[in-house]
Amino acid sequence: MPVRTRRWNDPEERGDGLRLRICRYRPRGVRKSDETWDDWWQDLGPSRELHADFYGKHGAPIGWEAYRKRYLAEVRRRKPLIEQLAARVQGGETVTLLCSSACVDPAHCHRTLLKDLIERAVSG
Questions:
Q1: pLDDT of residue 1
Q2: What does the pLDDT profile of the chain (124 residues) look like in tens digits?
Q3: Residue 103: per-residue pLDDT
Q4: How far apart are CA 86 and CA 107, in angstroms?
Q5: CA 14, 92, 107, 43: dihedral to nearest 10 degrees?
Q6: CA distances from residue 5 to 40, 48, 90 in whole angstroms, order as listed
Q7: Which residues pair with 6 in a beta bridge?
Q8: Rounded alpha-carbon distances, angstroms, from residue 46 to 13, 94, 105
Q9: Secondary structure of the chain as H, E, C letters
Q10: CA–CA gap between residue 111 and residue 4 (Å, rounded)
Q11: How far apart are CA 87 and CA 107, in angstroms?
């Protein structure tokens, strides 16, 4: 499947195709001319509330399982966006989902959850 995942600051690789940033927040200090992404779909990132809860901004941080469940519930409401990406992939385009530079573990990142949803929509 031509859906890849990386962090926004990882070097571009040959064949990345559409480099799509899927975070709620813009990285601090990055000038427009230094952007490494082709497009930015904030609505595919976790909500501000979920982000704050995961990082413990309003109390104890929530765990991965709670985050995963809440993110999947949020992003399912964005089904048209997922279907749009799935159609691009079905058409032969590669999509690379880009997350935060701080997100070093792809197994515990929304970009991997979203990748799975897109791939399921493609094989559908």
A1: 58
A2: 599 999 999 999 999 999 999 999 988 899 999 899 999 999 999 999 999 999 999 999 999 999 999 999 999 999 999 999 999 999 999 999 999 888 889 899 999 999 999 999 999 7
A3: 86
A4: 21
A5: 100
A6: 14, 22, 17
A7: 98
A8: 26, 23, 16
A9: CCEEEEECCCCCCCCCCEEEECCCCCCCCCCHHHCCCCEECHHHCCCHHHHHHHCCCCCCCCCHHHHHHHHHHHHHCCHHHHHHHHHHHHCCCCEEEEECCCCCCHHHCHHHHHHHHHHHHHHC
A10: 9
A11: 25
Provide the mean pLDDT of the chain. 94
Q: What residue type is assigned to position 68 of the chain?
A: R
The whole-angstrom distance between residue 33's C-alpha and the CA centroid of its chain comes to: 21
Rounded to the nearest 10 degrees, how much is the dihedral formed by the CA atoms of 63, 68, 70, 72?
A: 180
